[in-house]
Please model this.
Amino acid sequence: MTEMTPVTEATAKKAPTLPDAQTITQVKHWTDNLFSFRVSRPQSLRFRSGEFVMIGLLGDNGKPLLRAYSIASPSWDEELEFYSIKVQDGPLTSKLQHIQPGDGIILRPKPVGTLVHDALLPGKRIWFFATGTGFAPFASLLRDPETYEKFDEVVITHTCRDVAELEYGKQLIENLKSDELMQELIGEEHLNKIRYYPTTTREESLKMGRITTLLTDGTVFKDLGIAPINVETDRAMVCGSLAFNLDIKKILEDFGLTEGANSDPREFVIEKAFVG
Ligand SMILES: Cc1cc2nc3c(=O)[nH]c(=O)nc-3n(C[C@H](O)[C@H](O)[C@H](O)COP(=O)(O)OP(=O)(O)OC[C@H]3O[C@@H](n4cnc5c(N)ncnc54)[C@H](O)[C@@H]3O)c2cc1C
Model:
């Protein structure tokens, strides 16, 4: 695992002149297939925690090669954080995985997305359901005081194939609970109320299985010692593959929840973690 490398004056000079260019400030590799990085934030960029932007690099043809990325940092952060897959033959991430502090990156400052508090009706308990890099928007929302102002309880489920793929989320939640700034911003009593439910589908771990199965057979509620999902109290945000999103949508609808949007707030919202 590579440690975070700070930007030095020497590396900062490497940032090339790009349209909408920002500078990479930190890179951390979590597994052969996952890494996170932090980027300077355009002064004018305002976004709601949970939204995504287009980021990328210049392609071989000299044109910007852009992809959608959830902003993993909260809206109050001075920098922007992203959590990324490494697709070995992926047009963008085959290159992006080699970025270093000081390098330039293209960032279109037009945030959009449905995983925002505005798209949900008020409730008591919020569920964040993530698979893989679908954790990214929740890394933002978990660090936003608004989440705890709006909800008494926060449940985050994260499902990956292997244990190492859970590490980014696990460390984020551990740090969140012990970080003095977060305690000041959000309050220790709220942070201690986060219920984190990681599961693996391939490698042996403390809790194995698809979250869809664990929800339908009631295991999640039993494990956490909480009441089942109820339309009066529960709200949810979902971010995973298309198949995962469809499965969770059906489960939430069976619990009586309906899908909302920015223009029509309801009980749950969904966003694809990737296309394909
Ligand atoms: C709204 C939205 C938000 C997104 N947010 C993120 C994010 O925060 N982090 C992130 O890593 N990606 C995210 N993506 C996916 C991202 O846009 C790119 O697809 C990804 O960076 C790979 O780019 P690529 O050019 O290397 O390969 P692409 O040609 O884009 O993808 C090649 C194939 O790799 C697989 N793939 C792509 N992305 C992922 C992924 N994240 N997890 C598992 N398999 C994948 C798919 O099967 C895809 O067909 C998001 C996509 C959408 C639509």
The chain has two domains: 3-111, 117-270.
